[in-house]
Amino acid sequence: MNATSLEEQLPSYLILGVLAIVVVASLAVLARLGVRLLATTKIGRTFLLAVRSLWLHKLRASLSVLGIVIGTSAVIALMAFGSGSMQDALNDIKKQGATNIIVRSVKPTDDSATGGRTMVASYGLKFSDLDRFATFSDSFVRMVPMRVFPSEVRYLERLDTKGRLVATVPDYQLVNQIALAGGRFLTDEDERNLSNNCVLGAGVADKLFPFEEPLGKTVMIRQHRFLIVGVSADRMPTGGTGGSQAAEDYNHDVYIPFSTCRARIGETVFVRTSGSRSGEKVQLSQVTLTVDADFESKAGRHKVKALGDAIKDMLKEDHYKEDWAVTIPLDRLEQAERAEENFTRLLVLIASISLIVGGIGIMNIMLATVTERTREIGIRRALGAKRGDIITQFLVEAVVQTTVGGLMGVLLGVALVFGAPPIYVWIAGGNLPAVLTWEPIVLSLTVSIFVGVIFGLYPAWRAARLDPIEALRHT
Amino acid sequence: MLVEVRNLVKDYHMGDVTVNVLRGLDLGFAEGDFVALMGPSGSGKSTLMNILGCLDRPTSGQYYLRNQDVSRMSDDALSEVRCTYLGFIFQAYNLLPQYTVVENIELPLLYQGIRLDETTKARCIALAEMVGLGTRLDHRPLQLSGGQQQRVAIARSLVNDPQLILADEPTGNLDSITSEEIMTMLQQLNREGKTIIMVTHENDIAAWARRVVRLRDGRVESDERNDGAVFAAEVTG
After folding, report:
1. CB B62 within 8 A of CB B27
2. What is the ipTM of this complex?
3. Is A275 on the interface with B (CB under 8 A)?
4. What residue in B sits closest to A472 (Cα-Cα)?
């Protein structure tokens, strides 16, 4: 974690810290003076009185704090589920590499790309583009070119028609975080020697070698034999969340060295699809550039975007057709983050509304209580209670109510966060990710305490303003 | 003089009508006195009690309590005076129903800002025993009879060791036997040096006092020493 991100998260840590200090301090004081404090001081007595008179009207008190309970628990649960699914989306994007710039070949829509009789479409990124990208090499950690096309894979009489050939360099493993089930990934040596080695995706390996060990066997791909040196572990398809990125199934990939593909298979590839044959002449399907930057810092983000723009400009200049596309996952990351921010703001709004509604409920009950206890107020005033004492008494009662309501709401909310996902999965299937954070808990508790103060103030003031003589005469 | 009022006037404004309840009272009560305030309803005795009890302020005139003019004090200062120098006994006892006997007796101390610890609790228990409720310390007012409740109220009025006890028809809700018990108790307190001002409209209750002041239409009608009363009460008691 670096300085900037710590700085960004500082407010929440600060709140947590202050709260922790307050809690620890008050616990320490309470522990030292114990119940004695409650029983012997005025504020302690006031607190006990509040608890006692609320206990006297349990049903009424619990009904009046229901609004606060529901508001608080709703905020906590919604916040947890909201940030859970948001976290899911963010992780998805981070998995793709938040500092990557993905440059792809795109088949232009107009027919002029197809070269006459041969029906071979020639388009896309060129090796020369790769060289030009390399002029930025200071800013990149790695640059991974790929050539991808569908291809049957054969072992003896077994055939996987869904195979996809991915010709790439060893760094691919780092960019895409390929985990291996066995063997090794492609190496620099494979690349230098143009060796006919390949790494099978889990799906291909399952299909071709249901009962055997694939490592060391030889498969046929486009009339060439490849020695299996590794098998990748099962890999989740990436969700096609963005408009430009379709869902990809990686389990039928077969990885071969980039140089081998260039030398043995070449640029022009014919693909049979549903009876017809089409050819395409593409040098590079995709280049993934990993920028040397920290996506959590502002400067790092700026650097990624600036490089993306530079690459776009470069491609615009050199390509006659729009046969390329640049994707910057960071853009989507920022979009998701903005969405999360808006979502949080919305939740805070909903929370405020529900807590205000809860506060009105409290105020209603407190006003009734003041009327009901007018005589008690008169007695206390006669025995020497100041206006301030009366205000404190009713304010403490309101705050105790909303605080207890808030705490019950927190418990209910946390219970929902832990209890709802299994039920949801049981009923609806799928999954319901939830991330429980401190912020909504601290926020909603603080707000419910404040609601007690704000909505208790008017009834308390009404109580204190009563004329003691009138109040004593009240029956 | 412990209590002295000079030219005390109290007017009430009800819309356009002004009611002159007290029309220039001049009274003094010495320390250790036991005064019965009498008069028909509307005579101003309750208003006078409220002013003496620092629950109300006069329209004009002065009220000196311990040679201090309290008639122009702030609300908070009056609260202070009430819980330090005054003890109240009401006709309707005015105990807090959610509190036990001991907690009710403690209440004035709470507003004095005194720490309620074992010492104060012992004092409250002693007072409860003094009024004969030593076995009912944890009872709530509603579990007690009227006479017992009034005794709790007496104990409560004594807990802050007040210089002046104000009793507003203390026997108004009680039968004659219980009334006598309560009056005996008040008389005993007076003998021990407490100054008591008591409102009543019953002559046989007023007979317990050393001095009887009668009000009529906001003025003093009569002010007599009641020297035989103590003796008479002692004979009956």
Report:
1. no
2. 0.92
3. no
4. B94
